[in-house]
Design a protein that fits this description.
The N and C termini lie far apart (40 Å). It is globular and about 50 Å long. The longest helix is centred in the middle third of the chain and has 26 residues. By secondary structure, the protein is α/β, with parallel strands linked by helices. It has one domain: Rossmann fold. A 7-stranded parallel β-sheet has the order 3-2-1-4-5-6-7, sandwiched between helices. It contains 9 helices and 7 strands.
Length: 248
């Protein structure tokens, strides 16, 4: 029986790279998407073409009803969950804190923080030995921004990712004796479409000179770190906040 992995925001960028690599390593993969079904379906097609097992599952992670339906579909189609990657997240246009609306803040924290909490909750209910599960692993996608603060650009995004760090630490301690490991990866400047969604498509490349390695990272480099944390090779690793930032 293949281990079952759910990746939120799995249709593009880091999520898609993680889905493809996980399938290569024997996971049955549920690729979550909020609205871009074409991208998610393409990831699923690629996995299936390579002989793997995958399904696409629509859900806005900031909506509890949709999240519950998503987990039920994964249960029915793939079996009991053994791994979760909390990857779905948003940024917004560049702004200072004194320019941010409540609507912007509520959207940011609903998706980036509350969504991750809800998905982690549902994963624990399936993985934990307390609930009859066989254990599992959760990897939360944070950001190097949690350390840097992103002044003048995305302080709200950085704060939401700092919350993900705290979720990782607290949840790891809660479920450490229930067979579940909880870790986070903190990507740096990665070449993905998220920058364009914030109105700065070239942001990663413009800031590359500030990185000690003098380059951006790729989604595949983040996927490799995620898959290591999910794997048996990381069997004694929990509560880790793994920076994959090129030294930034």
């Amino acid at each position: 029986m293949n281990p079952v992995l759910l990746i939120t925001g799995g249709g593009r960028g880091i999520g898609a790279a993680t889905a493809l690599l996980a399938a290569q390593r024997g996971y049955a993969v549920a690729v979550n998407y909020a609205s871009n079904s074409l991208a998610a379906d393409e990831v699923v097609r690629t996995i299936r073409a390579g002989g793997g097992t995958a399904i696409a599952v629509q859900a806005d992670v900031g909506d509890e009803t949709q999240v519950l339906a998503m987990f039920e579909k994964v249960d029915a189609k793939l079996g009991r969950l053994t791994a979760l990657v909390n990857n779905a997240g948003v940024v917004d246009v560049q702004a200072r804190v004194d320019e941010m609306s409540v609507a912007r803040l509520e959207r940011m924290f609903r998706i980036n923080v509350i969504g991750s909490f809800i998905c982690a909750r549902e994963a624990v209910r399936r993985m934990s030995t307390k609930y009859g599960g066989a254990g599992g692993a959760i990897v939360n996608i944070s950001s190097g921004a949690a350390r840097l603060g992103s002044p003048g650009q995305y302080v709200d995004y950085a704060a939401s990712k700092a919350a993900i760090d705290t979720l990782t630490i607290g949840l790891a301690k809660e479920v450490g004796d229930e067979g579940i490991r909880v870790n986070a990866v903190r990507p740096g400047l990665i070449d993905t479409e998220i920058h364009a969604s914030g109105g700065m498509p070239d942001r990663a490349f413009e800031l590359a000179p500030t990185v000690p390695m003098k380059r951006t990272g790729s989604p595949e480099e983040i996927a490799g770190a995620i898959l290591w944390l999910l794997s048996a090779e990381a069997s004694y690793t929990t509560m880790a906040l793994l920076d994959v930032t090129g030294g930034r």
